[in-house]
Amino acid sequence: MLFQALVSALVGISYLAGTEAAVVPLPPSSTPYWFRQPVDHFGSNSNTWEQQYLVNYTFYKAGGPIYLTTPGESPVGTQYIDNTHFTVLAKATNGLLVTIEHRFFGQSNPMPDLSGASLKYLTIENVLEDFASFARSAKNHPQSLFSVPVSCRSKIIFGGGSYSGNIAAWMRAKYPDLIQGAWASSAIVYGRLQYYQFDQSYGRHLEALGCAQNFSQAVKDVDDILLSKDALAISDLQSRFGVPTTLGVRDTAGLLAALSTTYSMQAVTSTSDYVDQSVCSFFRNKTATPLEAYIASVSSVIQKNGMNQQSLVQMGDSSIGIDNYALGQVGRVWYYMACTWNGNWQIAPPSNTGLSSYRSQLLDLDYFEPNCQNKFGNGIEIPVDVQSYNSNWFDILEGVSNIYYTSGSLDIWRDSTVAASTGNLLTKTPGSTIVLIQGATHVQDLRAEMADDLDSVKRARQAGDALVAKWLNI
After folding, report:
1. Would you write out the chain's pLDDT as a tens digit for each of its 474 residues?
2. How far apart, in whole angstroms, are the C-alpha atoms of residue 32 and residue 38?
3. Which is nearest to 78 in space by CA: 127, 133, 9?
4. Other beta carbons less than 10 A from residue 439's beta carbon
5. SS3 for 407?
6. Alpha-carbon distance 49 to 37, whole Å?
7. Which of 73, 103, 172, 319 could form a disulfide with 182 if both were Cys (CB 3.0 to 4.6 A apart)?
C-alpha cells in the first residue's frame, strides 16, 4: 500500500465509416476483466481460477509501452492506473496502464477459503508466474486481453511500491525476456526475522522532529504498567487510551504500536508532515508528561480515523482469524506470507542492542510466531527460514540490469529495502540504479504528484523517467 484516485474514465477511438467519423466508446478504467490461471503453475492441482485486472486506455497509441502494476496485498482499484506517477509516464510515452490483482487478495481467489491447505498455493513462484502468464499473453495474443489493438512488440515496464515493488524487481530478474525494466519503490526485498529496525526508522523520523526521547519514555511508562500484573492499573490505562479493556496486555501493546505508527507512511511534503501533526505536536505540550502526550496522540488517531471498539478489537486481537477461513481477510493472507516467506516481525530491539525502543518490550518473537501454527496448522515450520528466503529472492537481484530502486530516508521499511541505513545491500547493480530520497517516506515517488512535493521526490521521479525512456529507447 498507496495512491489516491480520480481521473476520468471514458475514452474513445475514431475511425472512418464511409465518409463520416464515428466515435466508439471504450470501457472505463473501472471495468473488470478476468484472466484464467491454474491454481498451481508447478504442481499437480490443474484447476483454474479467474484473476482480475483493470485497464486504462486513455493515453495509448499504437506501439506504446505497457505499464504493468499490481496493488500487491490490496484489491485492485482504478487509483492504480488513473492517478499515480505511472499515469504521468503513460501520458508522456503513449502507454497502456494495466493493474492486476494478486492471488488471494480482492476477488482473485484460487481457492474457496483461506485455510492453511488452501494458502499453500500462495508461493512466490506461483505469484510471479501469474504475472508472467499475463505478460506472455500480452506479447503473443494481446487481442485476448485488451479492447484496442495492442502491438505484440509493445515493451512492458513493471512498477510497484512496497511489497508490489518486490514483485516488480523479481519479475525483471526472473523474466527479463518479458519485462523490459522495473521501477521498484520501497521494495521490501530483504527479509529479517527480528525486524526491530522497523521502529528504528520511525525513531529517526521522531528524532528529526524533536520528540523521540519523550516518545520512547512514554513507551517505557506504558510497559511498566502492562508488566505490573495490576489488573486495575492496566484496565485504567486501556480506558485512558480508549482501547478495548478486553484485550490482553500483549495485544494492547501491539495495538498501541500500530496506532502510533498510523501516519508513518504518509507522504512528507514541503508543507505538511503527518507524523509531526499526529505524534510530535502532542509532545510539545510542556504541561503534559510523556505518557499523557502519548495517550493524547493515540486518542487523536482513533478519533480522526473513526475507529470504534469493535474495529479496535479486530485490529488488536491476535487470535482473530485463527478459526475463520473466510475469504477477504487481508491480514490473514499477509500473516501467512510472513510465516512462510520473510518474517519481518516488527519487534522491540533486544536489550543487548542498546538501542532506544519505540515499541513495547512485550512485542517479541514469542508474541508473533505461535500464531503461525495456530492460524495455519502444524505444517508451518517456525521460525520462518529467512536465510533461504534471502538466498532465493534477494540474491536473485544481484547483477540484474534495468531496475530502478528507490527508498525514502524516513521510510519505516527502509532497512528491508536495498537502500538500508547501513548502506546499499546489493553489491552488484550494473545497469540498475539505487536512489535514497532525502526526507521522503514510503513509496512517495510513485504517488500522485502534488504541488508541494519535496524537491528530492521530484528529482527521483525525473531520474526514473529518464531510465524508463532509456529502457524504451525513446
Report:
1. 333 333 333 233 232 233 344 556 889 999 999 999 999 999 989 899 999 999 999 999 999 999 999 999 999 999 999 999 999 999 999 999 999 999 999 999 999 999 999 999 999 999 999 999 999 999 999 999 999 999 999 999 999 999 999 999 999 999 999 999 999 999 999 999 999 999 999 999 999 999 999 999 999 999 999 999 999 999 999 999 999 999 999 999 999 999 999 999 999 999 999 999 999 999 999 999 999 999 999 999 999 999 999 999 999 999 999 999 999 999 999 999 999 999 999 999 998 999 999 999 999 999 999 999 999 999 999 999 999 999 999 999 999 999 999 999 999 999 999 999 999 999 999 999 999 999 999 999 999 999 999 999 999 999 999 999 999 998
2. 19
3. 9
4. 18
5. strand
6. 5
7. 172
What domains can you pick out in the chain, each with its CATH number? 12-185+398-471 (3.40.50.1820), 192-384 (no CATH)
Q: Measured between alpha carbons, how far is 11 from 25 in angstroms, rounded to an integer?
A: 6
CA 325 – CA 330 distance, rounded (Å): 12
What is the length of the chain?
474
C-alpha cell at 162: 512496497
The residue among 280, 276, 257, 274 whose CA lies nearest residue 198 is: 257
**Residue for grid cell 499437480:** 44
The C-alpha torsion from 129 through 133 and 138 to 142, rounded to 10°, is -160
User: Would you tell me how many other CB atoms lie within 10 Å of the CB of residue 73?
Assistant: 18
Q: How many CB atoms lie within 10 A of CB 75?
A: 14
Nearest to 168 by CA among 381, 445, 439: 445
All three cell numbers of 207, joined, read 528524532
What is the distance between the alpha carbons of residues 92 and 88, in angstroms, rounded to a whole number?
A: 6
Q: How far is CA 310 from CA 305, 307, 319, in A?
A: 13, 8, 14
pTM of the model: 0.94
CA 307 to chain centre: 22
- Per DSSP, helices labelled H in 380-438 are 386-389
Helix (H, G, I), strand (E, B) or coil at 288: coil
Q: Which H/E stretch holds residue 405?
A: strand 403-408
Q: Which residues pair with 407 in a beta bridge?
A: 436
Q: Would the CA dihedral through 461, 467, 472, 474 be positive or negative?
A: positive
Amino acid letter, 199:
D
List all residues 6 or more positions away from 325 whose beta carbon is below 8 Å from its beta carbon: 113, 114, 115, 118
Rounded to the nearest 5 degrees, what angle is found at the Cα of 421, between the Cα atoms of 417 and 426? Answer: 50
